[in-house]
Amino acid sequence: MSRYDYDDDQVVVVERDSGGMGVGAFALGLAIGAAAALLWAPTSGEETRARIRREARRASVRAREFKDDITEQVVDRAERVRDVVDTRLRATREGVTRRAQAVGDAMHAGRDAASQARHELDDAVAETKRTYAESRASARADRADRDALLRSSNSDAAEGDVTEG
Q1: Among 13, 52, 71, 90, which residue carries the largest CB count within 10 Å?
Q2: 23 belongs to a structural domain
Q3: What's the total number of domains in the chain?
């Protein structure tokens, strides 16, 4: 296969997004780094603890917001996938229904055509039998007329032989 040959088949690629793990690890590293910076900052213990609480609350709020964002993205993506699947399923069902209807219509049309052809054939056979019977009757009548004519002419000829002799 040359490098210019292309495969025209449709291909579906499914990728796994591992970004969630990387973002989570990044957020954890950020929190640890912030805590370490606070611990080594030149402030009093009271101020450091208050600052840690503040930063922990902020980190908690950011984590909740991040979780909410991810949840919303997952829900949105699931709804889009569901819509696509529903649309394709509906289209497939409609296609199957149309094809089944077409097959049913074709079967009925075939049955009707076969029934009509049978009636036409029965009529043609009946017509042929009637014509044959009429032609036989006509042939018998013609033969009977011919035989009667021959008998009549034979009897006339026999009478003529009798009277001459």
Answers
A1: 52
A2: no
A3: 1
Q: Which domain holds residue 92?
A: 30-131
pLDDT in tens, 123-165: 999 999 999 999 999 999 889 888 888 888 777 666 665 555 5
pTM: 0.41
Could you tell me if 66 and 27 are in contact, meaning their C-beta atoms sit under 8 angstroms apart? Answer: yes
Distance of CA 78 to the CA centre of its chain: 26
* Residue at 80 is within a domain: yes
Distances from the Cα of 34 to the Cα of 24, 27, 37, 67, angstroms: 15, 10, 5, 20
Q: Round to whole Å and give the CA distance between 27 and 112.
A: 75
| Dist. CA 63–CA 76, nearest whole Å | 20
H or E segment and range at residue 109: helix 45-164
60-119, pLDDT tens digit by residue?
Answer: 898 899 899 999 999 999 999 999 999 999 999 999 999 999 999 999 999 999 999 999
Residue with tokens 């009667």: 148
Q: Is residue 138 part of a domain?
A: no
Give the pair of three-digit tokens for residue 21. Answer: 């793990």
